């Protein structure tokens, strides 16, 4: 219930429309009961053939209650749906704002398809929370309390019977089906998440599936998942239909009970027979408000699961935002000193440390390259330096200031970054370069020339740079970093897709621009490392060697062995 309570607190920002919905819903419900009560009384009274003037008051009341019911129902629908759409909009915005601080680390925990299912499907599920979960029980209780209070004036036994009927139709039956629904709901949402993830992965991996002749098999597996999801939905709809039928049947039995009790009281002389039809009509109408409770269990379970899944994703967000807001804004006016002091890190829900007790110091303006086997923690070290993630233990310092005390934005503001995978937006070359800042066309063209790209600024770039080769994407990302030209350069396999000649030319331009900056680069290639001031060798998440190129070659340690292997392969 904690998740729904959180959603309710968010929802209560629309207090005006919520109060109006409840007020007009209550008025419409009471007006309907009064309308049919007056109709029942009019039928009984007319049966006695009274003078015409004796029927005028019931007739007028029927017309009045009819107008009130219609007007109140319209206002209730207007206010409740306006509240629902506003609440849904607020939920989307709030969820996105809480999701944003979790990027990019969130993708280490959730598959993109499952995340999409939560962002779209679960948020949509909550549109029924106000109309089908929060609102109906309030109207039910208010209308029935008023009805029972009125009926008590004529017969306590009829009131007790109606109260029992309310308990059965409004609470007992929905509670039973809520338990039944809970057993199937988790399966339904798991199937939907798996289906969404499978579809996303098939779309992203379509080409690889074709190349490996697995497209047909994957399609069949998705069709099987789709069939299981459809079957689960069918069972769910069947349960809801049976629940609705049972509530309606119980409501009619309650009305038959009112007839039986009322007839007995009339025969016994305890009730004026003139009011029997009125009580029956009142019970029939009042139990219309119990009908929405038939679908209450399904929508309650949907809302509960949706709220749980959404808050599970964004739960760390408030702590992250609070921690980030408490951090100071650091201004890097010159190349910073960088130090890692016994830094360790483990990705969420994994069983081994990616980094363990890393101790490294980089001088201001130095040029450092990090090498080592794949999976040794090189890229993770750069992510920690960029404050994408925070270390589990140890400290990272920039100019002696703890990185954990510094806001992410202040680090990113002064950093020129090229990662292994760089995103390119659908648009033009100019628009993608403009991410680095507000630059003139001449400056952008100079940056493209520096990385040996002959692109026109208005040349189109497809989504994720699909129309660019791997080398072109890397060089466009480097051009973007060159335009920014921060005091801290972070390069993660930035030239891995380039040929040797182009790589040498591009890196010469980077070295020229970053001459007075602190540069940290990850590389798998061991050629050309003589130009670096410092080489860090990593293995198994630990730093195993540090030093200059000449120092490491003389010591004939791990780096020397890697160099010999490279020479043997490319000899």
Name the CATH superfamily classification of the domain at 86-312: ABC transporter type 1, transmembrane domain
Strand order of the largest sheet: 6-9-10-3-11-12
Q: What value does the Rg take, in angstroms?
A: 35 Å
Helix-strand category = alpha/beta
SSE string: HHHHHHHHHHEEEHEEHEEHHEHEHEEEHH
Mean pLDDT: 82
**CATH topology of the domain at 86-312, which one?**
ABC transporter transmembrane region fold
Gap between N and C termini, in Å? 67 Å
Protein architecture, described:
The chain has 571 residues and is an alpha/beta fold. Among the domains are: 86-312, ABC transporter transmembrane region fold; 338-414 and 486-570, 3-Layer(aba) Sandwich (Rossmann fold), CATH 3.40.50. The protein is 63% helix and 10% strand. The chain contains 18 helices and twelve strands. It has helices spanning 2-11, 15-47, 53-99, 112-125, 127-152, 156-204, 206-211, 215-267, 276-286, 296-325, 378-385, 408-413, 429-433, 441-450, 470-484, 500-513, 549-555, 558-570; strands spanning 338-345, 355-362, 367-371, 393-398, 401-402, 415-418, 427-428, 460-461, 488-492, 518-522, 534-539, 542-547. Strands 6-9-10-3-11-12 form a six-stranded mixed beta sheet, with helices on both faces. The protein has a four-stranded antiparallel beta sheet with strand order 2-1-4-5, with helices on one face. Strands 7-8 form a two-stranded antiparallel sheet. β11 (534-539) and β12 (542-547) form a beta hairpin. It is elongated and about 120 Å long. The two termini are 67 Å apart. The model has no long low-confidence stretch (mean pLDDT 82).
């Amino acid at each position: 219930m904690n998740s729904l309570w959180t959603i309710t607190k968010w929802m209560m920002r629309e207090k005006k429309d919520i109060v109006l919905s409840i007020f007009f819903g209550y008025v419409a419900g009471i007006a309907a009961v009064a309308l049919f009560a007056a109709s029942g009384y009019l039928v009984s009274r007319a049966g006695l053939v009274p003078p015409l003037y004796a029927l005028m008051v019931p007739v007028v009341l029927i017309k009045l209650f009819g107008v009130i019911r219609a007007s109140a129902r319209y206002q209730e629908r207007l206010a409740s749906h306006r509240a629902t759409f506003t609440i849904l909009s607020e939920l989307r915005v709030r969820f996105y704002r809480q999701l944003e601080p979790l990027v990019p680390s969130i993708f280490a925990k959730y598959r993109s398809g499952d995340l999409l299912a939560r962002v779209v499907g679960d948020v949509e599920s909550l549109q029924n929370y106000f109309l089908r979960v929060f609102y109906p029980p309030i109207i039910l209780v208010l209308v029935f309390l008023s009805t029972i209070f009125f009926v008590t004036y004529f017969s306590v036994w009829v009131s007790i019977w109606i109260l029992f009927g309310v308990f059965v139709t409004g609470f007992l039956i929905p509670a039973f089906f809520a338990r039944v629904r809970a057993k199937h709901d988790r399966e339904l949402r798991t199937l939907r998440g798996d289906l969404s993830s499978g579809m996303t992965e098939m779309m992203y991996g379509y080409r690889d599936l074709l190349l490996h002749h697995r497209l047909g098999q994957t399609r069949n597996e998705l069709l099987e998942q789709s069939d299981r999801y459809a079957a689960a939905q069918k069972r769910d709809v069947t349960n809801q239909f049976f629940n609705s039928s049972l509530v309606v049947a119980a409501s009619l039995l309650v009305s038959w009970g009112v007839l039986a009790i009322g007839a007995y009281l009339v025969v016994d002389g305890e009730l004026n027979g003139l009011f029997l039809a009125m009580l029956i009509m009142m019970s029939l109408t009042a139990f219309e408000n119990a009908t929405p409770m038939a679908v209450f269990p399904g929508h309650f379970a949907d809302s509960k699961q949706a709220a749980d899944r959404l808050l599970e994703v964004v739960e760390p967000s408030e702590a992250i935002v609070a921690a980030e807001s408490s951090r100071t804004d650091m201004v890097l006016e010159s190349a910073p000193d960088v130090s890692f002091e016994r830094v360790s890190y483990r990705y969420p829900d994994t069983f081994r440390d990616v980094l363990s007790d890393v101790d490294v110091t980089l001088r201001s303006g130095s040029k450092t390259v990090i090498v080592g086997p794949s999976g040794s923690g090189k890229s993770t070290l750069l992510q920690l330096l960029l404050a994408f993630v925070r270390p589990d233990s140890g400290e990272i310092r920039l100019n002696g200031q703890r990185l954990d005390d510094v806001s992410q934005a202040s680090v990113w503001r002064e950093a020129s970054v090229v990662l292994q995978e760089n995103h390119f937006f659908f648009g033009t070359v100019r628009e993608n370069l403009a991410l680095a800042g507000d630059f003139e066309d001449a400056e952008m063209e100079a940056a493209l020339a520096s990385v040996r790209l002959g692109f026109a600024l208005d040349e189109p770039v497809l989504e994720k740079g699909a129309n660019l080769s791997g080398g072109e994407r890397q060089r466009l990302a480097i051009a973007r970093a060159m335009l920014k030209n921060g005091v801290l350069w972070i390069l993660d396999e930035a030239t891995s897709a380039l040929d040797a000649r182009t790589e040498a030319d591009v890196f010469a331009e980077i070295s020229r621009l970053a001459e007075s900056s602190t540069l940290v680069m990850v590389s798998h290639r061991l050629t050309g490392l003589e130009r670096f001031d410092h080489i860090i060798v990593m293995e198994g998440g630990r730093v195993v060697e540090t030093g200059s190129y000449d120092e490491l070659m003389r010591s004939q340690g791990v780096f020397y062995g890697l160099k010999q292997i490279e020479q043997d392969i490319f000899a």
